[in-house]
Amino acid sequence: MRIDLSGRTALVTGSTQGIGRAIATTLADAGARVAVNGRRGDAVETVIAELRAENPDRDLIAAAGDVTTPAGTDTVLAATGDVDILVNNLGIFGATPAMDITDDEWRRYFDVNVLAAVRLIRATLPGMTQRGWGRVLDIASDSAVVIPAEMIHYGMSKTALLAVSRGFAKEAAGTGVTVNSVLAGPTHTGGVEDFVYSLVDQDLPWDEAQREFMRVHRPQSLLQRLIEPEEIANMVAYLASPLASATTGAAVRVDGGYIDSIVPETAAHTHPVRTSFRSFPRSVTAVRMSGERTAVGPHAARRACTRASLRQVLRPELAAGASSQATGVHLRVGSLDPNESRKAVMAMSDDSNDAATAASRLPALSR
Ligand SMILES: NC(=O)c1ccc[n+]([C@@H]2O[C@H](COP(=O)([O-])OP(=O)(O)OC[C@H]3O[C@@H](n4cnc5c(N)ncnc54)[C@H](OP(=O)(O)O)[C@@H]3O)[C@@H](O)[C@H]2O)c1
User: Fold this and answer.
1) pTM of the full predicted structure?
2) Would you call 238 a catalytic residue per the annotation?
3) Which of 94, 250, 342, 364 has the smallest CB count inside 10 Å?
4) Domains of the chain, with CATH numbers?
5) Helix, strand, or coil here: 36?
6) Bridge partners, 332 (sequence order)
7) Distance 14 CA to ligand 1 centre (A)
8) CB of 256 shorter than 6 A to ligand 1
9) Distance from the CA of 92 to the center of ligand 1, in angstroms?
């Protein structure tokens, strides 16, 4: 099987670094003429010079401009010419406590992560359908499905992008143009290094910081490491190629197995405990609830938590106090129902016996 994109022109937004740069490189190596985009002309020229120095056969176009504005979008499209492959890669992300996200920030995430992509699709889809061939690829994220509590505005924008992809795939039905989204998982890029360091000890060397981040904040990853940008780019190149002609309207995962479901859209429903208590890397192995007996073992505990729809940590200081009495066991206090009138303490450990012992030592909780 050979991916051949010769004769196709691709525009990759946000391609001066990270995943976008890897996608631009891979598409160019597959023979496409690729427009490299970033806001600054000098940065775009530098990247193009670097990519050509690595391989002089790469056919690259400088398409600097801010694609979050209509004027910037026009500039970029004028530099690119007819687009056969549109990769909406540009996306911003950052951790902000849910209650601190302002109206302006909600709007900014929508404008940059969703509306910029929509505007480019509107501008390029008619040409693609007229020519009878085209590819639109929207770079979404595992966060579209497993909404991170520390960046729900980002999750919202990526969920919206899935809807945009699916909707425009319908618009392009039967035309030879496919529209898909790619759900990237936690990936090793410069942007992510900053993000990782915003959540773990800034003095840790990168390798340790990465491991700590995956252990504490992304325990669901089956890959157990960050994804390399080229691994995302390989999937994008395949979907951009004529070989992927029967894949459209799909949300394709390159997430390192992060989303714990065979059907992405249901993941949030199947693992409410994992998502709510994401900061605990270990399995929930015992739960003691007010007015009920202690549930022991990963399955019973998970069922209990699911039934109780644990949503919010109420008193971390109590959990910390109890934790200090039981080595290797994490304890957490959570509400048992949305009106928070009942509480539970969960003991989490790799060892069921430790967790059960710790749970049995806990004081009875009043309702
Ligand atoms: N990294 C991850 O772990 C991860 C995981 C899942 C999904 N994703 C998604 O993958 C995509 C790429 O992420 P990344 O981490 O590779 O990004 P990144 O390293 O932060 O790179 C962002 C790129 O976008 C450009 N850019 C920023 N604002 C722009 C604008 N207004 N107009 C044009 N270009 C602009 C930047 O160049 P200039 O600054 O020069 O403009 C840069 O080239 C995003 O959609 C992200 O949500 C990332």
Assistant:
1) 0.76
2) no
3) 364
4) 9-267 (3.40.50.720), 271-361 (no CATH)
5) strand
6) 346
7) 5
8) no
9) 6
